[in-house]
């Protein structure tokens, strides 16, 4: 869910950016009205390169039963006609057990993948090499969303490979909305609503933890510009799960442009 919220939208041409800029974003995930996870993400870009870092952690009841603490990073280039992912890394603990993965892009070839622990063939099948070609990593998608020059970013088909799972995402525009600031969300104002459908093509759990994966379940993502003509930012997510609705809210945002910092959203 962490990378789904920040990395759904990708493969979009980038508007050129002459200035070095950095976005700091904070989010909280809720289930049944209770906070279950939080993460802070930083997106740094200049004319030729980008770097995305995220720190995620479980909260409340999830932290009690299944503690999670993960740091992730995505690095790549801005080519003037799109993005060129280079490296995606994730390092952390899941339920007290270490878990690491490194995904390195290679021109014309499937990405190089190093993971620990190794894939358990009883739990997951391998992703065939042909399904890895032409994919993007989750954080390359973050940069595409933040820098797109499109008037509306909600019309995309994404081929995402995170080192373990290959998933197709299809986004369609579902209208415009006006969101209000609440005790959960720091954002208020106009937002575009994306309807998200997905299909896991390979690498998913053979026996999902919470029953069959409901690919027909509705997922809705709201994106907005925090400043006039600024970057598109995810501000709200609603995803139907087997046991209820998972909701994500943005809780804070700030921007640094050539070392000058300003707060865009605060609780």
What does it look like?
This protein is globular. Strand 1 (21-31) and strand 2 form a beta hairpin. Strands 1, 2, 3, 4, 5, 6, 7, 8, 9, 10, 11, 12, 13 and 14 form a 14-stranded antiparallel beta sheet that branches. It has helices spanning 2-7, 60-65, 129-132, 138-147; strands spanning 21-31, 34-45, 49-58, 68-78, 83-94, 97-106, 109-116, 156-161, 166-179, 189-202, 219-225, 232-241, 244-257, 260-265. It is mainly β and 267 residues long. 10% of the residues lie in helices and 54% in strands.
What would a concise description of this structure say?
By secondary structure, this protein is mainly β. It has helices at residues 2-7, 60-65, 129-132, 138-147, and strands at 21-31, 34-45, 49-58, 68-78, 83-94, 97-106, 109-116, 156-161, 166-179, 189-202, 219-225, 232-241, 244-257, 260-265.
Tell me the overall shape. globular
Biggest beta sheet attributes: 14 strands, antiparallel
Oligomerization: single chain
Number of helices: 4
Radius of gyration: 18 Å
Spell out the helices and strands N to C. Answer: HEEEHEEEEHHEEEEEEE
SS content category = mainly beta
Strand content: over 45%
Query: Number of DSSP strands?
Result: 14
Low-confidence stretches: 6-18
Share of helix, binned = under 10%
Whole-Å distance between the termini?
22 Å
Average residue pLDDT? 81
